Amino acid sequence: MGFLNTFASTLAAAAFVSAQHDAGAKLDKPTLHDNLDYLKQGIIDNLPETNFNYELQAAGTIPDDCNKVATGQVYNTVNYNPADFDIFNVHYDDCGDPWVFCHHKQSPITIDSMARQFGKLPVQMRQWIRHVVDVPSDGGWAFEFDGTVTFLDPKDDMMPVIVHETGHSLDLSGAYADKPMSSSDRWWDNYNQDSNVPDTYASTNAIEDVAQNTVVAVFNENYPGGFGAIEPDYEKISHQYYTLISEAIDAGQGNNLFKPGQSAQCTHRMAPTDPVPVGGSKKRSMRERRGAAPVVGLSKNVTEIVTKRDGAKKRSDCSLRW
């Protein structure tokens, strides 16, 4: 009977921990601000650009994950013709392997703007992104799907959004020792020591709280004087964003994922998804017919990041809007 009582107590404790760690449950702490717009300019000004160039792939194929995004397989409300995308291989000076961008021809921003902004991410954050997708839309929205980030109605000054979506991949794809961070004991222990969350969107659930605290952490690590230089109540969320900073240093093996220039070159990468044929055809320009070949796999110089996100877990269910 003693064993049964102990076993029952263990199960009860496990159930309690599980309930405490429901990463999808709404959070009930008060917010510091309505949003994090007040951090935007500081992030833009203090993350340096990375030199880049790009080449247009030959028309006729699109990476599989971009195709899934475009054809409503990720969100059924997001539907575009895959033939309306230009596919670019974007090369940055700090990584020998290009990132494959899926840029809609009618996107409100240029491929230059999208590539420039993405390149401001420190490379050890950037390497946790598989593809970048940008499309026109009536309203601004962003989401992450197994390392692919999509921006609907993107802007030329959306660095906090890019950091936020990358934060989802860091959390859910396994960048940190405690993974997923948003459902780990360490995260919840530190969350419980704070009185607030950063903003209204962070209160959606722990997954969004981690992503918004990633924005705060990146600001803290790059803005002169840190987050406390502009936020008098910084201590009300300090356990949350300092936990991410600590994990970011551990994940970088002494380097800090959130600070640029600490790694000269990428060391790991999410591989691009295989190209799939694009249905339908339009008259193609000579440049399109002679474009670059699709990127398949990674070079031997980087280690592939293999995620273990299956089914619904591939989607972060982010609905960050502007």
UniProtKB/TrEMBL annotation:
Signal peptide: 1-19
Positions of the UniProt region annotated as Disordered: 272-293
Keywords assigned: Signal
UniProt-recorded name of the protein: Conidiation-specific protein 13
Species in which this protein is naturally found: Paraphaeosphaeria sporulosa
